[in-house]
Amino acid sequence: MTLLADELKQAAAEKALELVQDGTLVGLGSGTTARYFTEGVARLVAQGMKIRGVPTSRATAELAASLGIPIVTELVGQIDLAVDGADEVDPALNLIKGRGGALFREKLVAAASKRFVVVVDESKLVNELGQGVLPVEVLPFLWRSTAERLAGLGLSLVVRGGEETPYVTDNGNLILDVTVAGGIKQPGEFAMELKKVTGVVEHGLFVGMTDTVIVAGPDGPKAVGRLSGGAVARPTPAHGTDASADARDRPS
Ligand code: 5RP
User: How far is CA 160 from the centre of its chain?
Assistant: First the structure.
């Protein structure tokens, strides 16, 4: 039987729900896969579990509120577990995120979490990041100058939504969708290079942040990384692991 992409996304999200316990403060991701997770959390809340959510976008906040999940926006301490989707996942569990536009809050939530779990269907697995665009969130003020600085790094880019009616993020910023010719060879170094560009608010490279990826394929969902306490060997990266500023942002 061929499983539809939506069924795979749902299977991955349902597997991640096994990690949610009574009292968990959970980061709620954005996008179609994360939506299944939020819906599952709502079921647990309806069953009486005391779970609160930190949403990664206004859309997720509205969804969570409509489903009866108590929302936390002023965080003190750490989030227990964040679960989110991704656009691309490489063998070292580095990610591209943000094609749904929520990358900045998604990264904030992941960085504030003790454990960051990514839920994807197998179509998101790549040998090397950069197969599609890399979203970069930039300040609207003098954004053309920021775009020129990025182009100066040899990148080609487009304004999401077009210059006439640009897409505006929940933070009031623009997204430049960047294409890296030939793929992203060293995600950690590239992430730091992007972060240094004046006008760049955040980018969609998540390097060294992921604890577990739950991948759903025809044989069911499989976890890579750590799932439940016991250490599971990560897959050998196809092309080098990079230490990154993102990873250093994570609390120990
Ligand atoms: C939004 C994201 C999403 O998690 C990513 O785009 C994956 O979305 P989907 O599960 O719908 O494929 O990063 O900013």
Answer: 18
CA dihedral (59, 10, 237, 239) in degrees, to 10, reads -60
DSSP β-ladder status, 52-55 and 95-96? unpaired
Q: Please check whether residue 128 is in contact with residue 184, taking contact to mean a CB–CB distance below 8 angstroms.
A: yes
Residues with CB under 6 A from ligand 1: 29-34, 84-87, 97-103, 106
Q: Residue 114 gets which letter from DSSP?
A: S
d(CA 176, CA 200): 10
Task: Examine the domain organization and report whether 194 and 212 are in the same domain.
Answer: no
C-alpha 22: how far from its chain's center? 24
Which residues in 41-92 belong to E strands, given as ranges?
Answer: 52-55, 81-84, 88-89
Which residues are paired to 178 by β-bridges? 134, 157
The burial of 164, by beta-carbon neighbours within 10 Å (0-12 exposed, 13-18 middle, 19 or more buried), is given as exposed
- Which domain covers residue 179, as residue numbers? 134-199
Positive/negative CA dihedral, 155, 161, 167, 173:
positive
Of 87, 108, 205, best ligand 1 pocket probe by most atoms within 8 Å of the beta carbon: 87
108 and 139 share one domain: no
> Distance, CA 130 to ligand 1 centroid (Å)?
15
pTM for the full predicted model: 0.91
pLDDT above 70 (res 121): yes
Dihedral sign for Cα atoms in the order 163, 97, 63, 56: negative
pLDDT of 251 strictly over 50 = no
